[in-house]
Amino acid sequence: MIHYIKVVAEDGDEPLELPTEEDGTILLTTLSAQFPGSCGLKYRNPDSGTMRGIRLSDGRLYPPDNDWGKQVFVSVFPKAEGKSTPASDPVPKPVKSSSRQKCSDLIVLGLPWKSTEDDLRNYFSQFGDLLMVQVKKDPKTGQSKGFGFVRFAEYESQMKCMAQRHMIDGRWCDVRIPNSKEGAQQMMNRKVFVGRCTEDMTAEDLRAYFTKFGEVVDVFIPKPFRAFAFVSFADPDIAQSLCGEDHIIKGASVHISGAAPKSNEKQGGGYGGGMGVGGGGDRRLAGSNHSHLGYSPNYSQGSWGHVARPGSSSNPGSSYGNNLGLGNLGLGALQLNHAMLAAAQAVLSGQGGWGPLGLTNQGGAGMQQGVVQGGQAGGQGGQAVIQPSMTGPGGSGASNGDQPVSNTTPAPATFGSVGNGTSGAGGFLGWGGTQASDTTTHSPSQMAGWGSTHSKAPTGWN
DNA sequence: GTTGAGCGTT
């Protein structure tokens, strides 16, 4: 039977009532939801006049003598600091004009093994409405991996949440922006990469969803399900504005980024990131799996897969026509081998036996997702593997930059796709595209944090 | 049945 007990953060405060669970215990998360950082309860023993601690086990606070009684309990904080009265908000609101910012998923690190999604929801709801809560677990054992994700409805909630550490079920946890969001704002163009797609997302679903942000001119979903898609907008600004965001589509959290996210991995003028051979291969022909309604054919989408475009002016296609100038390739930075270079040149010149790619036969139809995987970058040369995932003639040449091509190949240098632009823009060649590796250089630039250490839970936990 | 820096099978 549920009832309520009175709790204060400090003697003299106005009591706040916390609900018990059915078994009469109080969840620590319930406590810490109202008293951030709180890790326990105590009360004054009327007989001795001294304070007594409340038993805590498995994240539950147990009533003394099986009865909470009518007394007022006092919240206990780790270091005799960090307590906060409900009256005084401990978090100075970073009230910026950031009100219009959008929420992103937040990773919660350092969760106790036992914490459930309910615990997380219970705890984090103190900051605002939650759209998503998940604890990553081992699929087999169901054992928590000790981290999870949350997503708030309001950006203010997110800000508040990230502005502090979190005591969850007896452990200090950190909330951060996931690494997957790195390099968010970049690559201005009209096509965005939609990662973490689920298989039940159709092109129509994506179109329907993204249309509310602006006119969608194309949706591309790789044929063998690969958990990502491309969405192209008529307005590049729309696409750009979505980059870096997380959206929830059909219950799944997808991540939106520029079509060649690895672009800013390297700097110094080199075009390190993705290599894409990509003319605007977006000529769409009927029969493809594209949704193409209302598509205006004058969107030349040249230069996909190209990254780190010099300057910010978007002028896709025209300036890259058949430009194989090595200066644009950033070769030095990527240690390309000759085989790959030759392959690329062959592609652009329409020779080289890349028949399966449909380049030599189809005049304008761009090959789709043509992928060339060299060995390790700069490594075993000659092992270029071509794996076009779509070869149908007339297939719309969605030139898919260098998005995740293979997560199994270590540091694959990949081609984007190749295609002759609708407007005659020739292929542009860029190199790069290491999807899986290279994550070590990222240094999450979040709000000032608390080191990276999670203090051990007070003994008695875990 | 253990563990404690990290980054999301679906």
UniProtKB/TrEMBL annotation:
Top-rank taxon of the source lineage equals Eukaryota
Instruction: Show the ranges annotated as biased composition (Gly residues).
Output: 267-280
Which molecular-function annotations from GO does this UniProt entry contain? double-stranded DNA binding; RNA binding
Q: What is its main location?
A: mitochondrion
Q: Tell me the segments the record calls region Disordered.
A: 259-292, 389-415, 433-462
Q: What CDD domains does UniProt report for this protein, alphabetically?
A: NTD_TDP-43 (cd19609), RRM1_TDP43 (cd12321), RRM2_TDP43 (cd12322)
Q: Which residues form the RRM domain?
A: 104-182, 190-261
Q: GO cellular-component terms in the record?
A: chromatin; mitochondrion; nucleoplasm
What are the alphabetically sorted keywords of the record? Answer: DNA-binding, Mitochondrion, mRNA processing, mRNA splicing, Nucleus, Repeat, Repressor, RNA-binding, Transcription, Transcription regulation
Q: Where in the cell is it found?
A: Mitochondrion; Nucleus
**Among the record's GO biological process terms, what is one?**
RNA splicing
Question: Polar residues bias: where?
Answer: 399-411, 434-462
The protein's name: TAR DNA-binding protein 43
